[in-house]
Amino acid sequence: MAIESFNPYTGKVLRRFRAFSWVKTERILGQAHRAAATWRESSFVERRRLMHRAAELLRARQDELARLMALEMGKPVADGRAEIQKCALTCDYYADHAEEFLRDEDIKTEARRSFIAYEPLGVVLAIMPWNFPFWQVIRFAAPALMAGNVGLLKHASNVPQCALALESIFHDAGFPPATFRTLLIGSDLVEKLLQDDRVKAATLTGSEEAGSKVAATAGAQIKKTVLELGGSDAFVVLADADLELAAKTAAQARMVNSGQSCIAAKRFIVDKSIVKPFISQLKTHLLALRTGDPLDEATQYGPLARPDLADELTKQVQDSVQAGARVELFGGQAKPGTALFRPMILANVKPGQPAYYEELFGPVAIIMEARDEADAVRLANDSRFGLGGSVWTRDAKRGEAVARRIESGAVFVNAMVKSSPEMPFGGVKKSGYGRELSYLGIREFVNQKSIWVAGEAPVAKKKVE
């Protein structure tokens, strides 16, 4: 089996890699398992030094890594540099805070001392997607390594060069080689890895279908998983919102990574009193965005990562239109089999259409009219997904109250949804479970061990004859 690095802008194969055999994969797993026994004994001082060094290398190599993303999955280089800088920030964050997050936590009981200790699990398998090929990995790897775990990366098959570059970052930073390895394998070997007792836990960012399979296999082995799956984020615009700000941010939020982001705004739920001017302004902002060669600094959005992804999105749009959706902004593919997909706006989106229930992973903005605030909340929650969302209103207290009623892992008031190292990231419903980032993220893959220490045992008195 060959793993291909494919340029979606030129349509050309850049490199081919021979996929690892199970023999090679199992040998690397054995090395990782042995490394876990020693890495868990390393000090936070040592881990901190190496993780700060990884951050330095990320910043030093940001141009070449951004170029790699542009070539392998079509991300504009300016966005790629921003992604690498965010990765470096997160490495520094966990280097600085891991010891604090994993410090013994005293609990008051009748014991002389009782506390929670946070101890590493061992080998963690990460199954990662192509859309943010460095960021998705770093937000797992930085906390996992700082907690004393070791990582095995099974990256998406269309970004093998990014996957190998990640391995080089950690190795060049001085981490023992077996503590982080990239596995160039197909999905066929994931099940065997999950069934191996040496793999202690798994994390997956990807589709609902992939998450379900990984969770089922890991569950059969009584093995911990964290899943970050799809999203169809609601962007709720109430009648009293700052319309100009909301519409401008809506365009940015829909076009994050050419619309290929789990937390890109996808469903724009707008009060009926302002829906027409909102669509008009959103259309203006979307049309102003520049596409082109991802290697060009002026490019604001590139192609989708693969032609088949654009074909699939086109079908979702066509099926929705046939079921009654109305096109407010024409765009999409120029012809089948091409990766470039220009922004579109769909209105009159109703139940029964793919656009209503499915995640549209690309630059298609879905407009839903809400009668009032209560109806807006109802529409926001009428989704099997629950990853992110935002609320737009001039009344911050009202926005907070509405945010509490939306079923989602994160809701932003008058701001675009984003991830950051300080805040927990994850979803509810079919968007997955568990959390990445913040102190919650580093505690996902540790044994939260309760330790109870009683008082000194009384000395037995000697019996007098």
Helix count equals: 15
The CATH class designation of the largest domain is: Alpha Beta
Spatial extent as radius of gyration? 24 Å
The 3D shape can be described as globular
Largest sheet: 7 strands, mixed
What CATH architecture of the largest domain would you give? 3-Layer(aba) Sandwich
Strand order of the largest sheet: 12-13-14-11-10-16-17
CATH topology of the largest domain: Aldehyde Dehydrogenase, Chain A, domain 1
CATH 4th-level superfamily of the largest domain: Aldehyde Dehydrogenase, Chain A, domain 1
Average pLDDT reading: 97
**Range of helix content:** 25-40%
Number of strands: 20
Secondary-structure-derived class: alpha/beta
- How far apart the termini lie comes to 84 Å
Strand content: 15-25%
- Tally of discrete structural domains: 2
